[in-house]
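Memo to structure team: turn this sequence into structure tokens by end of day. - J.P.
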Amino acid sequence: MDRIELLTNVLDSTFEKESWFAPLKDGMEGITAEQARWKPAGEAAKSIWENVNHLIYYKERLVAKMEGREWTQHLSGDENFHLTEQTREEEDWRKVVERAEAVHLRLRERLSEMTVEELDQQSLEAELLDIFLHDAYHTGQIIQLRKMQGSWPSRR
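Reply from structure team:
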């Protein structure tokens, strides 16, 4: 397995292929907009929706860099949790989930098209690993939120 294959494998395990931990796709699956908006008491708490916004933002920014596009949507670490508006509309939540899936697929495609030489030239390996760890961290938060609200399946 070369480095690109290894990175692609880790990308997939953080998004859709369960390995040592549940992937983000499982964390978003089967919940309502209301459940996605819910958060426990406390000023520092974030909702599932906010966490997914946050993950989308950083992946979209990385994909833009990989595609050589200028990134113009500069949001702070706190602002990007509000990338999309949290509404009560199921359609709005569905669009957020679809956007998370779409950026995953775009990142996967860009990564699979790269050579090891391009990976080295763009110094992307460390940034990709940071994204993967970041996704795993926030996916853990999402699953904990689902457990707190009782929306995480007991079979897991």
